[in-house]
Amino acid sequence: MNHPAEHAAIQHARRPFPAALLESLEAHFGDRVSTSEAVREHHGRDESPFDPQLPDAVVFARSTEEVQAIVRLCAQYDVPIIPYGNGSSLEGHLLAVQGGVSIDLSEMNKVISINPEDLTATVEPGISRKQLNEALKDTGLFFPIDPGADASIGGMSATRASGTNAVRYGSMRENVLALTVVLADGRVVRTGTRARKSSAGYDLTRLFVGSEGTLGVITEITVRLYPQPEAISAAVCAFPSMGDAVRAVIETIQMGVPIARVEFVDALAVRAINRHSNLSLRESPMLFFEFHGTEAGVKEQAKTVQDITAENSGTDFDWATRPEDRSRLWNARHSAYFAMLQLKPGCRAVTTDVCVPISRLAECVVETEKDLLGSSLPCPIVGHVGDGNFHVAMLLDPAKPEELEEAERLNRRIVERALKIGGTCTGEHGVGLHKMGFMIDEHGEDGIAVMRSIKQALDPKNLMNPGKIFSFTQ
Amino acid sequence: MNHPAEHAAIQHARRPFPAALLESLEAHFGDRVSTSEAVREHHGRDESPFDPQLPDAVVFARSTEEVQAIVRLCAQYDVPIIPYGNGSSLEGHLLAVQGGVSIDLSEMNKVISINPEDLTATVEPGISRKQLNEALKDTGLFFPIDPGADASIGGMSATRASGTNAVRYGSMRENVLALTVVLADGRVVRTGTRARKSSAGYDLTRLFVGSEGTLGVITEITVRLYPQPEAISAAVCAFPSMGDAVRAVIETIQMGVPIARVEFVDALAVRAINRHSNLSLRESPMLFFEFHGTEAGVKEQAKTVQDITAENSGTDFDWATRPEDRSRLWNARHSAYFAMLQLKPGCRAVTTDVCVPISRLAECVVETEKDLLGSSLPCPIVGHVGDGNFHVAMLLDPAKPEELEEAERLNRRIVERALKIGGTCTGEHGVGLHKMGFMIDEHGEDGIAVMRSIKQALDPKNLMNPGKIFSFTQ
């Protein structure tokens, strides 16, 4: 399946893959080098609706030194390098559009150290967020960033991921303290320190966070951890309209209530969740809340929020403190993506990811709803409403090019609206292949020129995940 | 006064300042161009103990377009550019080590917009943090970053400043959402959006935050705001030793108590504060706390913290909820710098700024105290202990080079120790001239090489605040 809107972005010539490179890789890595069709197919795709584009080889790396060796060999032969974590990208990050070597980092999944007193952990990039939280279980600490999928910490760093509780804990931007990165020429840099803050020179950590593998391969990450809250409670509340729901959220945030999560789902998404999770929530726009704090604190938060929702026409406020009730509600929200896919059997989803100033969110979603009414595709909406970030899952039949075209048309409309009101084309999924066409509109020619000049400075041969974020010719 | 330790860093040849450039500037800016000795002297110094190094001219700019015009003219003649905010740098950022034009931004001090629903404000760079908070007074919102001095928001962005309540609200790294920057060749880029988060490409905002004027001139800043807390309370508590105080803080943070500020002062600093503010605090290591939240929330926080301090040998826990009592305590802490200077009439201070993982803070301060015992200089200590950041103010007689030498020797020891245990040479003041000698130790040759390659990409003629952060030859 091709993306007509992004056709230009994915028309690349594959680069030569010299037999001598393969021999060298095999000499170094033995059976951890694979050129089998199945393995290459697995590594040349992701959760996006793009057709796979296969790397020439996959190497399973086990250390920074091994990644360095792979990068040096590839650099010697001008062969592209694509880092691979858990494959959960939605935007085509992993497609080998120019061929090359996929470095599979899933065997680099160790926790290197946990420093409970500093509230930090240093991990390898292949560890998933669930694996990390499992390792933290007995420390009283947790890693809060939760993009839904059980993504790798390396991939989450590379895409500047966030998710349902960024409203309280921030995104990977705020939660990565330090990185080890293998650069395009094989140099290894350690960015940042274990100190919580620093003013010592350019912020290289945040330069690599969100660089989507185009500036280097992340091989170690130091992240911030948080104390597990003494108490957690959850609530859901139905609203007659999206506008009412968003106004309730704005007031909640303006009151300084430190909500841990606040998620919006529209009526269609509620229907999907009800079917999938065997629930009977009212099929209307709805907010899911989660509160973290002391016993007294979460009660106070929930009471304040209940009052605010009532003033904004909220109904059916349902407050869950028992872990099993909380889990039931939040598991339902967490399974929303798969629940939505089941609305249209055999479908795939093109998912929008705009993020706008929250003052403009209600109008933006209302206008979006109007667009969707006119569409033939089922398009449920879920949103990280406290951040102004929402996703329209446009469910399409992969056998029907006209449906893809329709989805891309809607996506363009939604992104253009978001940019017009001061937002971004991607709040948390990254650019990959799918958003490249919007980058100049968002950043201006000069903004992209600055990004290109940084790319030129660090990867002049365009070896690191070429063809992603913006077009670049070395 | 010269800094022997940093001599190399400040040995620069002044570049030619062509008469034709001055004529062009005067043609554009009239009497907003000054070459008077007094104005140049004022702009060629800061709060560091360095002797002034005067720019060739000072231009008072009033808009991004004017800054762009100045930068274009300077670029045409290869003349350096140094942005000037409020002059409160402690590290020599403002010294015109190669001559050039100081762009005074103090007339660019407007609030461009306040967006209460989004909790953001967009401001010009010359506005000070107090001016911004004055403008926010009636909105129910505030801008929390508080470095002590009434620094400009532009300067705070350029140095990645923080201060007493970074433990809760973060530093400028977390609180700048978007920037307008005039690049070395006069292009203007707008980085970021008003959305709270984005994954759209390289994080240019955070590249310019902390770049100390070496990559461009910041002319607009969008910052995050916070709701004024419903209730604020403060407390002080004395401890027999720094170790006890730090353990109390670590436990407080690990419990997840959302303290807004927690500041350490040593016995000598308490003596200085007592004298200066006419207080009678116990002259022993002491913590100052501030709690933000609901009425019930701050009571609960204070109670939890009181219990934790008691378990760590804390005494004289004194809790202040009335605004006048809070102000008295915190004004005392805020005036600590000037109070300390009065310990030695006529002195100037060399101030260290290391930041270490908080698990190593107690040991780091205890070792530092041992170093200071052997010194002839009075050296009070204050610290943003929740961040692991502390300042030793080494009070020296500017007429005695041996005292400066002694201060630099101590500073080196303290920085070397901080780096050894995973910390940074500067938590919040920036590198300027003073910390350049530590940059390779902190970031490695390759880390600095990456910074240099970014500088090369964006400012190949080394026009933007040359001679700061790291040595660079175009």
UniProtKB/TrEMBL annotation, chains A, B:
Record has Transit peptide as a keyword: yes
Pfam families membership: FAD-oxidase_C, FAD_binding_4
Top EC class for this record: oxidoreductase
Requisite cofactors: FAD
Gene Ontology BP terms: lactate catabolic process
InterPro entries linked to this entry: FAD-bd_oxidored_4_C (IPR004113), FAD-bd_PCMH (IPR016166), FAD-bd_PCMH-like_sf (IPR036318), FAD-bd_PCMH_sub2 (IPR016169), FAD-linked_Oxase-like_C (IPR016164), Oxid_FAD_bind_N (IPR006094), Vanillyl_alc_oxidase_C-sub2 (IPR016171)
Keywords: FAD, Flavoprotein, Oxidoreductase, Transit peptide
Superkingdom per UniProt: Bacteria
One GO MF term attached to the UniProt entry: FAD binding
Domain FAD-binding PCMH-type: 51-228
PANTHER family per the UniProt record, alphabetical: D-LACTATE DEHYDROGENASE, D-LACTATE DEHYDROGENASE, MITOCHONDRIAL-RELATED
Recorded family membership: Belongs to the FAD-binding oxidoreductase/transferase type 4 family.
Name of the protein described by the UniProt record: D-lactate dehydrogenase (cytochrome)
Lineage, uppermost ranks: Bacteria, Pseudomonadati, Pseudomonadota, Betaproteobacteria, Burkholderiales
